[in-house]
Amino acid sequence: MGKATGFIEIKREEATERDPKQRLNDWKEYAAPFSDEVLSRQGARCMDCGTPFCHIGTEINGSTSGCPVYNLIPEWNDLVYRGKWKEALDRLMKTNNFPEFTGRVCPAPCEGSCTVAISDPAVTIKNIEQSIIDKGFENGWITPRIPERRTGKKVAIIGSGPAGMAAADQLNQAGHTVTVFEKSDRAGGLLTYGIPNMKLDKEVVERRVRLLEQEGIDFVTSTEIGKDITPSELKEQYDSVIICTGAQKQRDLPIEGRKSEGVHFAMDYLTVSTKSLLDSGFQDGNYIDAKGKDVIVIGGGDTGADCIATALRQDCKSIVQFGKHPQLPLARTGDNAWPEFPKVFSVEYAHKEAKAKFGEDPRQYSIQTKRFVADENGKLKELHTVQMRKVTDENGMFVYEEVPGTEKVWPAQLVLIAIGFEGPEQPLLETFGVDTDKRRVKAAYGDFSTNIEGVFAAGDARRGQSLIVWAINEGREVAYKVDQFLMGKSSLPTVEAM
Ligand SMILES: Cc1cc2nc3c(=O)[nH]c(=O)nc-3n(C[C@H](O)[C@H](O)[C@H](O)COP(=O)(O)OP(=O)(O)OC[C@H]3O[C@@H](n4cnc5c(N)ncnc54)[C@H](O)[C@@H]3O)c2cc1C
Ligand code: SF4
Fold first, then answer.
1. Which of the residues 162, 321, 410, 427 has the least number of beta carbons within 10 Å of its own beta carbon?
2. So what's the pLDDT on residue 1?
């Protein structure tokens, strides 16, 4: 274990960040790395518990608790404490194909279930994970692993997000010939066109895609299955197909004035911003610009926060984020006990930046948008809201009702709708003929097969909009099933074997 008395003697150190005012001038990652010395000290806090809840990912009350890829956290914490970085890397790569993504942007459900967190701040697991993999790349310890033999079996993966990439990595290592089809011009799914550059530098994603290519995986971008290649062509040409198309159909807000010029889906806004940054450093002008505008983000989640950070860098005039729910409590309540994911108030990177620029947190709680109002040219000029409160209805259920007299008018020239996702885009699923359940591909977790022989599904397309770490988990697990389907057996690792 780390240091026997480490968790008593050493305090948690929060991840370091670049100065919020300074970083608004660029699009580079906002986080700043810890030194080796600090990381070794933080690793020493790990108690190497008999039953490490941090390492076992599960869902409790609809939230993730522990690490979904079953990272061997206590083992690499101890190795980092002892300065054995290469060994820590070997241990980390046993369970996680892409720690450089999760180490940067995972919400770290492992930390919520860390035993130290029962009474003290958790071990800084996520930062240690990022440092191990970053060191692996810096020191040249990560090199292409080219499979020694090929099975002659061909697998097509539709979608190059973390689920598709993890499945491709595993199946390639098992010796199969893997092609990943991607409708966008760049691989990576939401890692590329979703999460903004200041959270996850796109060079980090491209570096991994290049490595997978060197290992033998073929990424075919700008190719939409269902349009450029039909599902039947794919089924004819490949021994197995995996649908990893994500769940990017956005939930709309069909209220009065929705068609006003200046009302956009968050994902459209984030995608064109990253594309323009990568294509031309914004020189092409092909993005939605918040410069000089009053911006309102509707939706209190992480996608909304990413919109705030983007609009701030574009030099918006003002920014507000609306949330439907009340502000979360500062500490766990009785119905959210350890080891559940802590549902407590937090200040994200974007909120810190908004405060640094405008002097206050941009969030407004328990608020509902009633209508958008445009000027005579159809351009958005304002937004009307009302405050909501939670009450109990006649059946004892919690419902929200409007608070009379709380109507308010907000000036707005740009509104970004970030109220969640409905599931995968349906046309592909229809042409494939796969069964769906609540708009997602119907395929049981652990089995991953659809109603069509040889066609499997994994990631958000199967489970709904979720987390990168779950996408990696599903990519690994579906690969095991596909390998078994193709060869009659598989020696690929699964979480069960951990
Ligand atoms: C704005 C935003 C921020 C997020 N931030 C975080 C975060 O900080 N941490 C975290 O853990 N999770 C985050 N998430 C969630 C996370 O990104 C997803 O859960 C994860 O990317 C899902 O992986 P996936 O591979 O299943 O699908 P995706 O990443 O959605 O990839 C699916 C891919 O399939 C492609 N595709 C779809 N249809 C076709 C077709 N017919 N032919 C070819 N290609 C097709 C798409 O273009 C896409 O590239 C965020 C999500 C959003 C929207
Ligand atoms: S992948 Fe996420 S849950 Fe797992 S160890 Fe890393 S930060 Fe924790």
1. 427
2. 62
Tens-digit pLDDT profile for residues 374-432? 999 999 999 999 999 989 988 888 899 999 999 999 999 999 999 999 999 889 999 99
Read off the pLDDT of residues 243-280 as tens digits, 9 standing for 90 and up.
999 999 999 999 999 999 999 999 999 999 999 999 99
- Tell me, in angstroms, the distance from the centre of ligand 2 to residue 84's CA: 20
The closest residue, in CA terms, to atom 2 on ligand 2 is 108
- Binding site membership of 125 for ligand 2 (Cβ less than 6 Å): yes
Mutational test site, ligand 2, from 469, 472, 474, max ligand atoms within 8 Å of CB:
469
How, if at all, do strands 240-243 and 455-457 pair?
parallel
Say whether pTM exceeds 0.85.
yes
Tell how far the Cα of 207 is from the centroid of ligand 1, in angstroms: 18
For residues 165 and 32, the model is more confident at 165
- Which element (helix H / strand E) includes 309? helix 302-313
Predicted confidence at residue 497, as pLDDT, reads 67
H or E element at residue 59: strand 58-60
Strands (E), 262-355: 263-265, 294-298, 318-322
Bridge partners of residue 241, in order along the sequence: 156, 455
Residue 111 alpha carbon, nearest atom of ligand 2:
8
Integer angstrom CA distances of residue 161 from 145, 195, 327: 21, 12, 32
Give the pLDDT score at 47.
81
Alpha-carbon separation of residue 346 from 42, 66, 302 (angstroms):
22, 19, 11
Closest ligand (CA of 478): 1
Decide: 126 in ligand 2 pocket, CB within 6 A: yes
Cβ atoms of residues 206 and 123 within 8 Å: no
